[in-house]
Structures are given as C-alpha cells and as structure tokens.
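Following up on my earlier thread - several people asked me to post the actual chain instead of describing it. Fair enough. Here it is, all 558 residues.
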Amino acid sequence: MGERTNGTPSSTADPSAVKPMNVEDKSDAPTAPEETKESFMQAARSEALRPFVIISSSYLLFTITDGAIRMIVLLHAYTKSFSALEVAIMFTLYELAGVFTNLAAGFMGAKWGIKFTLVFGLTLQIFSCALLFGWKDEWTKEQAIVYVTIAQMFAGIAKDLTKLGGKTVTKLVTPEEKATKLFKLVSLITGWKNSLKGVGYFLGSALLAVSYEAALSVMIVLIVLAMPWAILGLDKDLGTAKSKNANWKDVFKLDNTNLNYLCAARLFLFASRDFWFEVPLPFFLRSPTCDGLGEDVCTLSSDCTANAICGAESMLCENVNPGGGCGGLGADRVVVGALLGGYIILYGQIQSWTPQLVTGPLGQTPPNKLTEVLWGVVNCLPTLVMGIVAMWSPAFQDGNKGAMTGWIIVSVVSFAIVFAINSSIHSYLVVSYAKMDKVAVSVGFYYMSNALGRLLGTLGSGVLYTYVGDDMGELAGTNSVKGLAACFFAGTISSLIAALITLKIDDDKAGLKCGSCWTIVANQEDDEEEEEDVVVDDAGQDIKHKEDDNFIITEVEC
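Reply from S.P.:
Thanks for posting it. Predicted structure:
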C-alpha cells in the first residue's frame, strides 16, 4: 500500500527521503536561489508578525492571572468550608459568561477589531480582581457565593474577550496556502498559553500561603504590564470583517456545517476534562482520610490526620471542610497547586509540540476529522481506567495514600498528553474551517461551545462529587472516593460522545495514517484521475508525486 509523507525530506539516499517534485517540473529547469531563513527574533520584529507578538504576549500574561485567580478562589473557598457544589456554583457565571461573551466577542472583533476586545478584556480582569478584594469573612455562605460568582463572571468575560485575539491572530498572519505552518503556529500559541496558565495555578496557590490580598495584588500588576503593548502597538482595524459590516446575523448564521459539528464535539471534549479536573480533583487532594473523623478523641489538631482539626466542643477529630468530603490525600495547598499546575504545563507543552512529535511522525499533519476521531477515542482511556481503579481497587477502598497518589499522577499525566493532542488538533481545525473574512465570528462561536462544555463539566462534577458516596457523619462528610470515580466515568462518556459527533464532519478525503506504512483509512484523493510523474530513486523504488491543495504529498511504495 502506498505511503503518504508530508513535507520535503533532506536526503535522497533513502527512498522515503526523495524530494517531491511538481508534475510540470523539468529536469533542466533553472534552480531558484535558496531563500535565506530568518531568525525567530527577526521574524518577531517584522511588520507582518508584530500583531502576533503583541497580542500573544498580552494573552500569555493574562493566562497566568486566569489560572492563578481560579486557584485563589477555589482554595480560599475550601478553607472557608464551602462544598464542591458551592464552589462549582461560584464558577457558574464564569463559564456561562463565556457562552454569551464568545458570541459577542466574535461580533465585536469582526466589527471593531481585535484591539478593542483585547484591551476591554484586560480591563475587566483588573476589575474582577478588585472585586475579589471585597470578599468578607463575616459574610454568610449565601452572600459570599452571590458576590464571588458575580466577580468571577467579569473574569470569565475578560478571559474570552482576550482569548479571541490570541486565537484569531494566528489565522490573520498566516497565508491561506500554509496549512501546516498554521497548524504549528496555532499549536505553539495555544500550548504556551496553557503552560503559563499552569504556572498561574502554582503561583496562585503559593501566593495564597502569604495572604489572599497579596495574591490578588500580584495578579493586578501582571495585567497592568500587558496593557501598554496592547494599547499602543495594535491597529484598531485588525481582525475586522472587510467585505461587509458584521452584524448579529453573522454570529448566528450556522452555514458552516463542519464548524457546527466541531463546536458540538468541542463541548463534550472539554466537559470530559472539567467533569473531574477543575473542582473534584483539588477537593479530593485536599480532603483528609475518613479514618477517625468523628470518632478519635483529641486535644490538639496535631493528634488528627492531615487537614483535620480537633473540634473545640466535641474534642473529636473533625474534617476542616465536611462539605469537601473525606477519603482523600490531605495534601497542602501548594502541593495541590503544583500538581494541577504541572498538569497544565505538561498539557501546554505537548500541545505546542503536537505537530512535530505526534501528528507529523504519524503522517497526520495537517490533521483532518479522522485524526481527531482516533485521538478522541484514545481520550476515553485514562479516565475510564481511573474511574474503575477509584471505584473498585483496594488502594482507594483501603485509603492507601501511596498507591492513590501513584494512580492519580499516572492518570493525570496520561490524560494531559492525550487531551493536549486532541485540543491541538481542535484548535487547528477551527481556524482551518473558519472563513478568512469571518474568522473572529467563527472562532467566537466555536469557543462559545467550549464555554458550554466547561459549564456542563463544572456543574456536573459539583453534583456528582458532593452527592455520590457514603455519608460518614456530619463531622466527616461524604466519602468522596466514589464521587471522584463517578466524575471520571462522566468524563469518559463525554469523550466518547465528542468522538462520535466528530464523525459527522465532512473532511476525510486525505484518509488516516498511523506511521510510515500503516494506512487506517485510504486516501480518497488517490482514486481521482490525475497526471502523475514517476521517478526512480537510487534503490530502484518507484516514487509517485502529486500536488495537493496546500502541500506536496509524496507516496512511497513500502
């Protein structure tokens, strides 16, 4: 079976390394002078890439604060005895705002430009941090939930306004015919964004150990640093629709079928992560073991297990947060931030290097819908295994902290790698399917579905983690092991639904490969009658060449 490899190999000694040639090329054709490769810094200083550099740097600084604020709010709420469901509610408007903000951002970006949405988003992030300073210890839970939820709503709006610029600028600075270059550029900016968000997770939890106020102050400083570049260095017309004025009909015009299916798949793809990652995992890591809670007599909190206290009235060991459940690892806040931050950093780096390390060597660059279906199915495996282990293995049933820690780390790392590949492919497909003059609208609509998925996962996880499991008493709370397992199973179902929806996309003519000589789905374009040039390499093997729409494809007989 014929092999397809993308790109131009460097050597002709190996049959797989023969340079592709156009069917119209002649052996005596003049050789064009070799282009001088510019350095990264030269490219960054060029006029064409200036918007990319400015928007990306502002976007990356913003993402540090986005991850940090999430951890600050979550861990601060945990110490104030808010349950997983109550914390999930605090993030409801943060996620729900993204649904409407992405629609509005797509409209605003197309009508008023990316500069407007970026500066507006940075300003709202400062405002959100300022509101969080007003969270008072003497408030009731209901008052605190309402106030923090509103403050987080502004942070959610800020995130999606800022994200629009970071995502769309890659399409605007990349020529239409450079599909592979676009894939790499999208993967790079998306991956580094997520890595720095992971830095924010760790930074937020570490600064919280100093003080709540100090943590918020540092976040405001970071946003202020990003503002001058965005205000002074960008053209106000960047990203606006050129052919006609944008209107709300453009936002709701669902005429791009492939993009519509991709949006639906994106919803469930991100729900597959948020069903267990954003709230259940940090709560489980913080929660103490159930053993002895409400039973062991104590005089000091040091007499009890980690993250448990000695009740002043009961003189028994109590869970510091019964609403957060028990049965977990009792980890310190900085450890929780390090694990979650490490996940996101790894996820971001894998995302950045997916074209070079994964899809490229497998012959899947640039990817199509079949590539995403394959990796979408693989995305089910880490959460399925972790759900089974958490629900039925002796390690979790007996509270073996060493074994539980090992399983959690392996599962988190595995999911981070696979999910990063999926997300990288998704991020490329959305800008690939988007129309050039409506890219801001298309990306905005796509990330609306992203916000819906996060909302589904966040709220669903709060319900599952809080109510699934055995009640261990009011001083201990619910045994959260089964709740965590249920969240992993919900994530598995979401991954499977996302893969099934992706099958509906009409983008499979290029087929699907998995390595140099394994074709899973044949290239349908090979069946079309096209003129071919056949040459013979040094080893006597036939090398067939043809030109695809965006890049040269070389077929090598295995």
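Strands lie at 2-6, 308-310, 317-319, 512-513, 519-521, 533-536, 542-547, 552-557. That should answer part of your original question.
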